[in-house]
Each structure stands twice: as structure tokens, then as C-alpha cells.
Design brief:
With 124 residues, the protein is mainly β. A hairpin with a 5-residue loop joins β8 and β9.
């Protein structure tokens, strides 16, 4: 009988426990082709908006960037349900030449953890 009660209690706790993930949805495109940049010392900024389309809080746990020439700023590391946030990416391709690709990874408490933003450009 104790085993049956324990199994029922376990099943009820599993049923009512929250196993939902947050949902990060980008409102802007995540791949940008900037084209040719006339000078190697041109700095540019991209702002990409995203929203939390879930009933759970969205947390940005880590941010990785592929290049030291990139600065990344988040509007907030935590978004409430249906709240909109943004990431500002500033690129200064100093001393770069040719085709370049910058990636920014937002690691979040979502089912798919890694959300990638890509910026492609060519320095003349």
C-alpha cells in the first residue's frame, strides 16, 4: 500500500511540476550580409530584437562572440513572458581584410540552448 501511495504521489508531482522551457523568438533576421566595407576602420552597429513567447522567464545564461573586434550588449539577461529585449552588436573590423564572418551565440534556458546571430561583410 505504501508503494502505491508513493507512486501516486510521484505521478502527481510530475504532472504538476513545470518542465516547460522558455521560448526565445527573434523579431529581426539573424543573418546579415553587410556587403563591402570601404575602409578597414569602419565601425557598425546591428540591433536584433527578440521576445519571450512562453509562460516561463527567459534567461540569457551566457553570450559568446567569435571575434575580439565585436562588442555585445543585452537589454536584459532576464525577460518575463511576452517581454521584448534586444542585443546590440558593435563590430570594429580594425586590421581585417577580405571576407569576414562574426557570430554571436546567446545561450538561454530554452529547449535549444544556442541561438546564433551571423554578420557577414567584406573589408576592402
Amino acid at each position: 500500500m505504501k508503494i502505491l501511495v508513493s507512486l501516486i504521489a510521484f505521478a502527481i508531482s510530475c504532472f504538476f511540476s513545470s518542465s516547460e522551457y522558455s521560448d526565445l523568438t527573434f523579431l529581426d533576421k539573424r543573418i546579415y550580409h553587410m556587403g563591402k566595407i570601404a575602409s578597414y576602420d569602419t565601425t557598425f552597429l546591428k540591433t536584433i530584437r527578440f521576445t519571450n513567447n512562453s509562460t516561463e522567464d527567459l534567461e540569457i545564461l551566457k553570450v559568446y562572440k567569435s571575434c575580439s573586434c565585436t562588442d555585445v550588449k543585452l537589454s536584459s539577461k532576464c525577460l518575463k513572458p511576452n517581454e521584448v529585449g534586444y542585443v546590440e552588436i558593435t563590430v570594429n573590423p580594425l586590421n581585417s581584410i577580405g571576407l569576414q564572418e562574426i557570430t554571436v551565440h546567446l545561450i538561454a534556458n530554452t529547449e535549444i540552448k544556442d541561438h546564433v546571430i551571423r554578420i557577414l561583410f567584406e573589408v576592402e
